């Protein structure tokens, strides 16, 4: 089969299209004929071995696929790795059958980003009705869903950040009450101004560095910052316990792998998200569909913030 593999760690340039043997499903696993592959920012970290879990060479990246099982069922699945290929294996309990109304691209927008957005708000932030939520990278895969879900879950005000005016307009179309520039300098002041001069209750933060620091400074007493990424590849300043105590604020980490094996945090939310999309009540943003042979270009565009919505690889090209 055709697959994208790395044999050394590095940037997008180490991604190579190769021929590999078909994977073999173990007991409890499904072999999936892949129709579409989801691309996540975490993939760029895996390729350079800078993610939370260490990568092992040789590696076929990719944590999510949509396709068909041997018995013809159409599914979307979370995989440990191996997604950038014509065939992949996934544990059966991490695969979800797809309604006819949900496209492959829409399904792939949910299996990592949708579950992340749901758990950021429900599980980690424990959003309460009427609270103000800041969503960074609001035009991206997770952010665009988090904006919509925050409103659905009762947020009183949603403030989006994005890197361009076009992306900020999109966040407003998705339901954000305000949208501001994403860069770290002056960010605290822009967030407070967008919230009528008041501090904010919840921040969903995946950039790190100065954006993390400014977001923490903008939190109200009993506010929660949920950190779920470090796209800037810059660590924030260390957070002192005394500072958290002095302002009665919290920093919470989230990694999607911790929902695995917990149906209440994975299977039930996924069923809810699929139903919302099928009914037209949740909008997924489908970005560019790249040929699998151009996986390196997809990573380049993602790292350069040239993309909007969910990126997909087509294994047939």
Question: Would you kindly provide a brief summary of this structure?
Answer:
By secondary structure, the chain is α/β, with parallel strands linked by helices. Helix content is 30%, strand content 26%.
Q: Could you estimate the helical fraction of the residues in percent?
A: 25-40%
Largest sheet: 7 strands, mixed
Spatial separation of the terminal alpha carbons = 13 Å
- Helix tally equals 9
* CATH top level assignment of the largest domain: Alpha Beta
The total domain count is 2
Mean pLDDT: 95
Q: What is the total tally of β strands? A: 15
Which descriptor suits the 3D outline? globular
Residue stretches low in confidence (pLDDT < 50, at least 5 long) are: none
Assigned CATH architecture of the largest domain: 3-Layer(aba) Sandwich
CA-atom Rg in angstroms: 19 Å
CATH topology of the largest domain: Rossmann fold
Question: Structural class, from helix and strand content?
Answer: alpha/beta
Q: Beta-strand percentage? A: 25-35%
Walkthrough of the structure:
By secondary structure, the chain is an alpha/beta fold. Strands 3, 4, 5, 6, 7, 14 and 15 form a 7-stranded mixed beta sheet that branches. Strands 10-9-8-11-12-13 form a 6-stranded parallel beta sheet, with helices on both faces. It has a two-stranded antiparallel ribbon with strand order 1-2. The protein is globular and about 60 Å long. The chain folds into 2 domains: 126 residues, Alpha-Beta Complex (Quinone Oxidoreductase, Chain A, domain 1); 146 residues, NAD(P)-binding Rossmann-like Domain (Rossmann fold, 3-Layer(aba) Sandwich), CATH 3.40.50.720. Helices cover 30% and strands 26% of the residues. It is built from 9 helices and 15 strands. Helix 2 crosses helix 3.
